[in-house]
């Protein structure tokens, strides 16, 4: 029996694994986030164990013939390291790029960032978390001076008065979380859901608002307009704990309900209902998710809702405030420890000299040798194989060709690389394009920490030994680092790296033991915003996880901002934002809005869940309203074609009354949806606009 | 424009909503320090269209200011309040203020708005030239403040001197809003409208009839086809012989473009100041006009959204983008008043096309769309705003609709499914979290049995009520049904 957590979303539900012969069995375990509940993804999570599709030997593809052949680990790692070294010699260090994932453990994310900066010396590292909650992260940093998805435990939802969910379908994307909503309603609280689709989450709402995709921002401006007009803002809180309100207050004078109605398609009366609900509530919780965040104005959208929460005096108050419902399993921890292009461990910024000095000392290198800021995820992919861009890419924990926006273009960029290396457990769509595929362990076979959506650091523990031939990502990193010549400060292998090392320092080490790496991570995060230095594996086991910031000697911080925000003056900042609208508006040729999202039984690009036989894999579909179906002559179950300026896909129609008639929806777990999506980026978070673009549908 | 864009002096005459939006556009393009705003009112630019909301009491007056005074100063904008412009001297490219000072310009923008029409009612202006104290206009924040003072002197609602009744002259959008606002405050209101139905510029006679009926239900008497001719001590006399006893007369009878400055400067003025697609006067490349005072393509508008769109285009033009062009604008007029729902799209009185219409005078609803080539080109929704957001989107974006779609949009939305749980077919999914069908639940004996064998209710918990109901209504047959068991086998 091994106590661990689910391999999928950011709830990281607690579960227990036990061995039944060759099989692993999932059973319930009490953990505050899920209280023993699991969705079918969790219950069937062990199904990948023993899958015939599991890779158990490194594979090398012959570029000329396209044929795959098995290789030994030494052959594969030698090949990769020598190519990396050669490319670096010709094009410089930034020619080698690394792409990580929000599903990797903290230890892997940390080690990957270190590997890129120290072993490869490249600035070109980023990860798929950019496509997850980066807009909320950017907004949180601007408003609060820190980004922790939920600054309070998830179960606090049950004890607030009004919970506003903006662009979240948690009942399908993280089902056990919906229990907290139900309990809130049992306690007499109200749930508000804002979504272009009436989802199972929306069905739980006391008030459901159905805006045009891309207009959550003006809705927030309209709510604040009404709150200010009614004198319902918390003037004392604003004066004592915030700055910048006057400009924001004035800016919303231009967003009266009928103006908002025209832009958002939400009736003025509904907006008034929402404002009056908020004005009369003691505690209000505003939660955003991808629906609000995955936009070219995603950061501004989150800021606008943050302004509402701040104007009501909620952040820092118990059972109230603003939070982001992070998506990926380690979306939170993944962004804190250095696999993001602009960050070093502990949520330190890579252009901060003090941060560089601290982390370089932990790594045993000269801060001067650390590269600076690199490209953001989409910009990195967009540059691959171009004259100025990287010539190689190492991919860990991501299935880019399914999950990137404008996927056809991204696939063409991958094809122009000199070297594509993918570490994965199965032959994913991205792995299938690689030169070298490295078979790696999956969740139940390895140990490591994750930081869930609440900022709670939890521990996944290995329950079984991996199949023969499979190694951990940590082994891959150490193996490559050793070959690239920086083990214990001694140059070995293919290419002595021209790195000056500080005399007296031991030089970087490349452990493959998670707990050892975590100890190093604690030192690297010490004094940073996301301070893990007081967290140990034992504490995590004993305390049902530990919330950061947790400096040594601290009990951890389940609830933030009670006294101060993280800006130097201790105050939260109101930030004046304007509505620009979606980057791509409907035209005569593409008269509809397309939005994308998830279904319950699949996770992300489906690389894992589609290979679990107990999960239905019905393929993509196109959700459309009967009015639109009539207009284009579509019938439920019959194929329809969705086109955007970037591509097209065909899938069966699902005719439902729960979607706006001017909008179509396609789930993104299967190849296709992201051939359609727009790669317009948010100026601050560099989040692509997954959630809205112009589209046409034909039967 | 003859001057280089970089250091041109931009002078905006007017401090209304169009001017404020233009300033925001100029500031966003770095032109704030070159901008001077000459505003006649003493208030910073505010949201004029919410005045009736202030009157009604839903908005505090302080919430209307569009920017703080400091905001302008911080961005280098020279905002001069209480500054009345008397002349534009195009020869010297200066504007002259009432105090005879002159302000030089390279580009001057007229954003002078509209001037309320004063209907020719004898007795409104007294012998000494002052206005009868019972008469109020309703265009500015000061008008609104005066009215509020009258209504609620020192907050003493029981004060016998407070007005108890009011006559609103004008049955347009503003008249209806003011009437509702006063009624909400407990004032008995009556409306006098010269045309033969309410909202005559926006809706047809049958919709107007519905509106009149709704107003009557709300306690407001409406006099149509009647003109106020004289205000006496007995009250307001109408040309139909009625005399309306009243404490208050509010004038809301429309307005006309305020173009006197342009006329004096010998610029072409028809109904408004005539401008081209760059909002430039057709007579002088350094003079522009936006908002209610401007006439573009033979159209003057009295609405804020076209004014703002013009402001956006002009900011681009003044920043040097000569390709920016104003190509007209679709107007959506929304009545803002309690218990009175009206939305007018475009000009349903003037547009041609197929008319789709659904009315229920008993319920006080009248919904009409004018459709041409599958597109909604105009419409009026009275008394029932269902799907107003969707209809507005289709109108704004000129979406080509299906053959029957316009009609379907006007019909009531089909009510939510509300399917009776016991009727669920065996293959209907009850628990999405675990993927469990109604049949599999029916095959279970108890909630524990359901949890253990199907894992339904163990995810989000949302299906628990449905599961309980299914268990309660399951056919109380012998222990387990073999067919259902085998069904279960095939689905897992």
Give a written overview of the molecule.
The complex is a heterodimer of chains A (699) and B (492). Chain A has 699 residues and is an alpha/beta fold. Chain A is built from 23 helices and 28 strands. A 7-stranded mixed sheet of chain A has the order 5-4-18-17-16-6-7, with helices on one face. In chain A, a hairpin with a 4-residue loop joins strand 19 (448-451) and strand 20. In chain A, helix 4 (134-144) packs across helix 13 (298-311) and helix 10 (257-264) crosses helix 11. Chain A is globular. In chain A, 63% of the residues are buried. Mean pLDDT of chain A is 94; it is low at 487-505. Chain B has 492 residues and is α/β, with parallel strands linked by helices. Helices cover 26% and strands 22% of the residues of chain B. Chain B is built from 14 helices and 27 strands. A 5-stranded parallel sheet of chain B has the order 3-2-1-7-19. Chain B has a 5-stranded parallel sheet with strand order 9-16-10-11-12, with helices on one face. In chain B, strand 24 and strand 25 form a beta hairpin. In chain B, helix 1 packs parallel to helix 8 (304-318). The longest helix of chain B is centred in the middle third of the chain and has 15 residues, at 304-318. The relative contact order of chain B is 0.10. Residues 477-492 of chain B have low confidence and may be disordered. The chains are: A alpha/beta (699), B alpha/beta (492). At the A-B interface, helix 6, helix 7, helix 9, helix 10 and helix 22 of A face helix 9 and helix 10 of B.
